[in-house]
Amino acid sequence: MKSNLTKLSTAALALSIMVSACTNDTKTSTSRDSLKTDSTANSSLKPAGPPPEWGQSIKPEMQAVIEKLASYGDKPIETLDATDARKNHTPTDAVMDLIALNKIEIPAPKVDTTGKDINVAGGKVHLRIYTPKSGNGPFPVIVYYHGGGFVIANLDVYNASAQGLAEQVNAVVVSVAYRLAPENKFPTAHQDAFAAYEWVVKNTVSIKGDPAKIAVVGESAGGNLAANVSIMARDKNIMVPVHEVLVYPIAQANMNTESYKMYANAKPLNKAMMTWFTEKYVNTMIEAQDPRISLVNAKLKGLPPTTIITAEIDPLHDDGTMIANKLADAGVKVSSRNYEGVSHEFFGMAAVVPEAKAAQAYAAEQLKAAFK
Questions:
Q1: Ranges of Polar residues compositional bias (predicted)?
Q2: pTM of the model
Q3: Cβ distance 12 to 351 under 8 Å?
Q4: Taking the CB of residue 212, how many other CB atoms lie within 10 A of it?
Q5: Long-range contacts: 6-11, Cβ < 8 Å, 24+?
């Protein structure tokens, strides 16, 4: 990652507090909203070329991010080993560079951050804790799990999402740096995710949190982890989160769904990368059918109300739809929205992509309602 990533991330994600409200009523059960958003917030972000073949409906701001990411000339992640893949530029880098190039002004952060290492089985996990600057608490708490296919990325890359939620919900957010594969194979990330949640449950008061108001949120691989935390909490008879937000979660192992076929070559996530991620995390490919990875095979009854956010131009789009349907079939209250014209990883791009502002606002609305 670039050395200035943390500094840039901290500046950019503050803009995520300037959200545009979603006007559609929340849908329950298996119904889904598909939102079209006015792309006027950053009219200076114009793509240089025509829409890519894999995403003819892409919004201009999203395309500008993808073009900037391509401009770095990095080798495809699926051709690299994990160590080199982690050195590639990220969508966050592209967003930060667009902010700088377009002189987008960023409000001051409304949260303070601290770091803490906790002991887990076989090692330690780092937590980044975002605490609202205004008010004395106790605040509701969100345990947040970043994406990256269980292999790449870190707390800095997903800083915008975590801080955006902390500021909009006025909550303490605990972002979890679970250990990555292939150095730490399945189910290490899943065990780390739950160990971090257990720590939060036991130490809520010490971080100015309300022990009765704890939710989980995750993106992509992190969405899978967040759902697993709810399942493990249910099965281990400890406090189940009051709500879970799953943003384009990994929910099953079949890479021949319609969205995998349609967006096999999409950016920044494609089918080849998903195969690469899976091979790096599991010990054998048969393990990808484990209900902890293929959530559609899990026992879902008794999970908390769930919000699912998907992107149109995303191989994982159908994963989100499938797990939404499975949860609803299990009697779980489900609310979901699909955002058109954007691709995987859009959620943390609120500084430049209007759909990300809207999605963060929607997630924040759902969490605030759950915390009441």
A1: 25-45
A2: 0.91
A3: yes
A4: 12
A5: 6/156, 6/159, 8/92, 8/93, 8/96, 8/99, 8/100, 9/92, 9/96, 9/156, 9/157, 9/159, 9/160, 10/109, 10/159, 10/163, 11/96, 11/99, 11/106
Going from N- to C-terminal start, the domains of the chain cover 5-371
The burial class, CB within 10 Å (0-12 / 13-18 / 19+), for 372 is exposed
190 part of the active site: no
Measured distance CA(156)–CA(113) in Å, rounded: 12
Give me the pLDDT at residue 35, please.
58
Q: Provide the residue type at 318 as one letter.
A: D
Active site residue 344: yes
What 3-state class would DSSP assign to 115? Answer: strand
Q: Which of 192, 314, 318, 319 is catalytic?
A: 314
- CA–CA dist 156, 13 (Å, integer): 11
Q: Catalytic residue, from 220, 259, 335, 336: name it.
A: 220
Q: Is 220 a catalytic residue?
A: yes
Q: At what angle do helices 91-101 and 60-71 cross, to 10 degrees?
A: 110
Secondary structure (DSSP) of 36-84: -----TTTT---SSPPPTT-TT--HHHHHHHHHHHHT-PPPGGGS-HHH
Angstrom distance (rounded) from CA 358 to CA 353: 9
Could you read off the pLDDT of 280-318 as tens digits, one per residue?
Answer: 999 999 999 999 999 999 999 999 999 999 999 999 999
Strands 306-313, 244-247: pairing kind:
parallel
Mean pLDDT, consecutive 10-residue stretches, the chain (372 aa), reads: 39 37 34 50 78 98 98 98 98 97 93 98 98 95 98 98 98 98 98 98 98 98 99 98 98 98 98 98 97 98 98 98 98 98 98 97 98 96
The answer to whether the CB of 1 falls within 8 A of the CB of 154 is yes
